[in-house]
Amino acid sequence: MDYLPVEVIGNILSHLGAARDVIVASATCRKWRKACQKHLHTISFNSHDWPLYRDLSTSRLEILITQTLFQTTRLQGLSILMDDDDEFSASTVVAWLMYTRESLQWLFYNVRTTPNIYILDICGRQKLEMLVLAHNSVSGVEPNYQRFLCLKSLSLSYISISALDLNLLLMVCPKIEILALVNPEIAMSDAQVTVELNSTTLKSIYIEAISLDKFILEADSLENLHLKDCALELFELVRKGTLKYLKIDDVSIIHLDVGEAVDNLETVDVSNFTINWSKFYQMISKSSAMRSLRIWDVVFDEEDEIVDIETIALCFPQLSHLAVSYDLRDDLREGILHYGLQGLSLLENVNVLELGSTVINDIFTHLNLSRSETYVDVEYWAQSKIAEAGRKGDLKTQHE
Fold first, then answer.
1. How far is CA 194 from the centre of its chain?
2. Which end of the chain is more exposed for a tag (fewer CB within 10 A), N or C?
3. Using CA atoms, how far apart are residues 291 and 67, in angstroms rounded to an integer?
4. What phi and psi values does residue 353 have, to the nearest 5 degrees?
5. What is the dihedral of CA 332, 335, 339, 340, to 10 degrees?
6. pLDDT of residue 110
């Protein structure tokens, strides 16, 4: 260790991440202290990393963070994630950000201050490439001043923001590629809850816990769309057919439109969803390049909504991974389930096949799969259902 250059030691300390570990390690000797001061590029202050953080008063914690930060130079990554119970002095937190902002490339920020400080004013026009912001408010985005010319990834969790400011925020990030929205509090100017976003560079968007009337996204370069735990009357995606990955998990949508050009879709993963299946299938049926299709825990009430595997095999000839699990009314179950499995022999390129059902009967014993490497996950699914029933004390389901 004595022969390691200080630059290498600084890199080692940066990989430790947690401020407590960095401080303890840098106390080893003068050389390590120098490495911490001159070559540390990443540090994290997280109240969950060290229980002692919670035992310190807010003022003492401010002093500790200030002393640590002001001993570093040219930090590239800074994470400050503190419990909601702590309220820091705004002037102190501003000093931290002003000291580090010129060299920061990524910032994770979840700090409550009195009064509230505006991150966009402090970190705009700098080198920031990633911003993760939580439990704060964003208001009055000014496109002519608050520019994030290098920002590629933006995550907003539990943020208070208007629909207009959200769109303006994307506009002031001309290179943004990744956007995550988790349970935002979106202020509206009229009775209809509508969000319209526009970005020519956005490639991936993750949306969780949003309830809106309309969500319209115009993103010509979008490749990845993931919706989770949302309630939307209308979701419309306007783009030029670049979408490759679509995941919908526990979402209720009355009208879903991802555009006409779906030729590049490679992965579709749908689970616990409420939507008209026939319309959804008609939408994705043009995706001849599909390689992975997952339809899991879906309830069908009508016979004409059944997932016909033979049709899937014909529509998606390149499919290599297929997962299907759905429930039916008792009067539909026997005949429809058998009909739905008719086309299994046509899945020539499928090497992973997962089938789930609340009833495992003789139908499954007649599956004729030509490829020895094909994996049918029926037994695992049944065992998981039995285990779940056992936890809930449902003896009838255990018996089944």
1. 21
2. N
3. 53
4. -125, 125
5. 40
6. 94
Beta strand 252-257 with 292-300 is unpaired
Please say if the pLDDT value at position 226 is more than 70: yes
Per-residue pLDDT of 82-96, as tens digits, reads 877 778 999 999 999
Say if CB 75 and CB 98 are below 8 A apart. no
* Cα separation, 109 vs 89, whole angstroms: 15
> 44-59, pLDDT tens digit by residue?
998 887 777 777 888 9
Asked if residue 295 lies in contact with residue 307, where contact means CB atoms within 8 angstroms, the answer is yes
State the virtual CA torsion across 343, 348, 352, 356 in degrees, nearest 10: 0
At CA 208, angle to CA 202 and CA 210, rounded to 5? 105
The tokens describing 73, both together, are: 């130079």
Q: Tens digits of per-residue pLDDT, 118-156? A: 888 899 888 999 999 999 999 889 888 888 999 999 999
Please, what is the average pLDDT of the chain? 81
Angle at CA 388, nearest 5°, toward 384 and 391?
Answer: 140
Is residue 108 a contact partner of residue 129, using CB atoms and an 8 Å limit?
no
Question: Per residue in 170-195, is it b (16+ CB within 10 Å) or e — as a string?
Answer: bebbeebbbbbbbebebeeeeeebbb
> Helix and strand tally (H, E) in the chain?
13, 22
